[in-house]
Design a protein that fits this description.
Layout (H helix, E strand, L loop, with lengths): L5 E5 L5 E2 L15 E5 H14 L18 E2 L4 H7 L3 E2 L3 E6 L5 H13 L4 E5 L4 H10 L8 E4 L3 H11 L3 E5 L16 H18 L2 E7 L11 H5 L2 E6 L6 E9 L7 E7 L2 E4 L18 E8 L2 E13 L6 E4 L3 H15 L6 E7 L11 H13 L7 E3 L2 E2 L5 E2 L4 H10 L4 E5 L10 E2 L2 E6 L2 H11 L1
Parallel strand pairs: 6-10, 6-11, 7-8, 7-9, 9-10, 15-19, 17-18, 19-22, 22-24
Antiparallel strand pairs: 1-2, 1-3, 4-5, 11-12, 12-13, 13-14, 15-16, 16-18, 20-21, 23-24
The protein binds thymidine-5'-diphosphate and magnesium ion (MG).
């Protein structure tokens, strides 16, 4: 018998190559090519072609733009990143570290939705009994949620056809395998095939499907990025497993705004929504400590106060720059700006920076707070009580405005903060120095910010 032809598929972009290469020729990632069956891919393509319905070509203005029907899940903090609720035929991918609470959240959502519609929960990771046990712990004993413990895709699709759920959870996509492919569950080809088939099924039956996905060590969703293109919404579940707070963040949403977050607290009885989360990531120091600076970051529509901590310590042979929750390359850049423009040198120092509470901060408006925390740690002098800062710092040493500065200041004032160092353009126009009890120092350059802080402490 002739040997099956194989190709090498990139686990990052899904591109294929006939030979193994260290670097993917399509996306340039290293060590991502894995052997997969070539003819199976061809088979998939043919099957899809046969199934794709013929659609007439129409003029844009003639197409009726129907408002999308949403069903709220009943968990307000989950509805927020979803854009208001689940959508008929919509496919959501939710990723997160193991043990963060994905299964818990989806079981809670399934229970709420099952009061209004048929719901199917497919578990590939746990047995039906384990799911039942969790439901009992969560106090969801009487929920009419249908449960299927299965990992074979074709059987799952058959069950969905049979049960006709309007909401279906697949926990998780990495455990499934399709008979059409010979590769192991969790491999690129399997994950892609299973997700594609489930997406097609969701669209044709109008079922709303949630796929649970695992996250790699680097923090990306395992499996090809193609998965993210295939689905309508991508949510990330993040947070420090050691603290009880969890964030659900939308990074792609065809039916709503991205960067919207939902905040939960993990309790004895499952995840509880936190409707007013602005202050949850502040740690409670008795007196101000060196190396700590509060930042107002804007997550979707809600401002969030996060403490940035820095530790600067004399280095050994090679100075280290480490950051948790913040971009490390950006940290290196900021240290160079601090040196060049403000004359503060960390060249012989280790620099560690941490965003407290396991939040990930992507916005550059964190720059000023990071630099002031570093400077405070280096001098061994705390910033004043009730101090906060935000603003982007550019390579020329300029402090650039952050979007929606007034909103950030208002939230800080509401929480009783006393002093703020902010970009000039974000300072209130009317009375630039006092804003609802908050003393505001507007700065245009990093050296100016450092000077203001030196004068304060
Ligand atoms: P789980 O939903 O199984 O995580 P994932 O599916 O993302 O891997 O979450 C498991 C963790 O949550 C586990 O460490 C125990 C904790 N937990 C609670 O604290 N309270 C609860 O009510 C439940 C069900 C779980
Ligand atoms: Mg789980």
């Amino acid at each position: 018998m002739a040997r099956d032809k194989t190709v090498y598929t990139c686990s990052a972009c899904g591109g294929t190559n006939p030979k193994w290469l260290g670097k993917c020729p399509h996306c340039g990632e290293w060590n991502t090519l894995e052997e997969t069956l070539a003819e199976a891919n061809g088979a998939t393509r043919h099957r899809f072609k046969a199934m794709a319905p013929m659609q007439p070509v129409a003029t844009l203005s003639a197409i009726e733009a129907a408002e999308i029907e949403r069903s709220p899940t009943g968990l307000a903090e989950l509805d927020r990143p979803l854009g208001g609720g689940i959508v008929e035929g919509g496919v959501v991918l939710i990723g997160g570290d193991p043990g963060i609470g994905k299964s818990t959240l989806l079981l809670q959502a399934a229970e709420k939705l099952s009061q209004a519609m048929p719901v199917l929960y497919v578990t590939g990771e746990e047995s039906g009994a384990q799911v039942a046990l969790r439901a009992r712990r969560l106090g969801l004993r009487d929920a009419p949620v249908r449960v299927l413990a299965e990992i074979q895709l074709e059987r799952i699709l058959a069950a969905i056809e049979n049960e006709r759920p309007r909401f279906c959870v697949i926990d998780s996509i990495q455990t499934l395998y399709s008979e059409a492919l010979t590769s192991a569950p969790g491999s690129v080809a399997q994950v892609r095939e299973c997700a594609a088939q489930l997406t097609r099924c969701a669209k044709s039956l109008g079922t709303s499907i949630v796929l649970v996905g695992h996250v790699t060590k680097e923090g990306a969703l395992a499996g090809p990025r193609v998965l993210e293109h295939m689905v309508d919404t991508v949510l990330y579940f993040e947070g420090d497993t050691h603290s009880s707070f969890r964030l659900v963040r939308a990074i792609k949403n065809r039916f709503g705004a991205v960067n919207e977050i939902g905040v939960f607290a993990m309790t004895e009885r499952g995840l509880k929504g936190v409707s007013n989360p602005s202050a949850i990531f502040l740690s409670t120091h008795g007196a101000p400590v060196p190396g700590s600076c509060v930042l107002v970051t804007l997550e979707g529509t809600r401002p969030l106060l996060v403490e940035i901590q820095a530790l600067v310590d004399s280095a050994g042979v090679a100075p280290r720059r480490l950051s948790v929750g913040l971009d490390r390359d950006r940290l290196a850049m900021l240290l160079a700006v601090l040196h060049r423009h403000a004359g503060v040198s960390c060249t012989d120092q280790d620099v560690f920076v941490n965003a407290v509470g396991g939040v990930r901060i992507g916005e550059p408006a964190a720059d000023l707070a990071v630099l002031l925390a570093i400077q405070s740690s280096l001098r061994g002098k705390p910033l004043p009580r009730g101090f906060l800062a935000f603003g982007e710092v550019g390579l020329a040493g300029e402090v650039r405005p952050a979007p929606r500065g007034q909103e950030r200041l208002r939230e800080a004032a509401k929480l009783g903060f006393a002093v703020a160092v902010v970009p000039r353009a974000n300072a209130p126009k009317t009375d630039a120095r006092a804003f609802e009890g908050l003393a505001i120092h507007a700065v245009e350059r990093i050296e100016q910010a450092i000077e203001v802080v030196r004068g304060l402490s």
